[in-house]
Amino acid sequence: MSRRGSEGYALRLSAVEEDILTLLVGRELYGLAMLEASKSAVGGTRALRPGSLYTALYKMEQKGLVRSWWGSETPAERGHARRRYYTATGLGAEVLTATQLRRHQLAQWQPA
Amino acid sequence: MPDHRPWGGLLWGLGLVWLALGLRLGLVGLAQGLGWQRLALGSLLLGVALLGVALLGVTLLMRPEPGQPAPQPSWNRRSLSVVPASLREEWGGDLAEACWQWHQRGYARWSIRLWTLSWMLQLVETRVRCALYAAIWAHRWKKP
Lengths: 112, 144
Prior knowledge:
The complex is a heterodimer.
Chain A: H1 15-24, E1 29-30, H2 31-42, H3 50-63, E2 66-70, E3 84-88, H4 90-108
Antiparallel strand pairs in A: 1-3, 2-3
Chain B: H1 5-32, H2 37-61, H3 83-86, H4 88-104, H5 109-140
Helix pairs in contact in B: 1-2, 1-5, 4-5
């Protein structure tokens, strides 16, 4: 995992990754809960899609931005399959903060 | 017992790739009359065959010995080709729960099936895209 000093991370977040990290900071959610939360928050047309969600989660876990674990419950409505829970790691939260700060700095820029 | 999961996952991934390739070639051939029907049919058959072999192989080879717990996937070392085998429980569970919720909300059975198909196509399409990217670009493309 490559970093560039303490000022900014070399890790750049895609739009989907940023949405996922925003959802996961301070929360523990599984895939379907993330899809529903996203749909509830921003509406159906701009919500996370199943196809991109799981692939992004896999890549983010490889980068160390999120961590995951199997839940212990096996609800009958899931066909007794376990839920895979995700949450943002410290690195994920830092990268998200850095990304939001960069956006803020860009928005605040004034021509000299 | 040796871990055959990577091979099962690789076959599963290849099957999905060929299946999606066959579907796309078939659709392109149908839309533009390019005469790719034979190629599309071949890809579809190969995809189905690979999926079948992967399912059969994984089912037979991954049966735990009597009295031993089933091996758990190592999430820290999974590769893109292993993902389909490892995430089957997660995707399948989420999809089953979503179907259950739609059913509870009173959606018609045909609309639930349509949504389920849409989910599956999205998952397959993303898997194919990532697999092709990993196979072609990540290994062959060198930054100058």
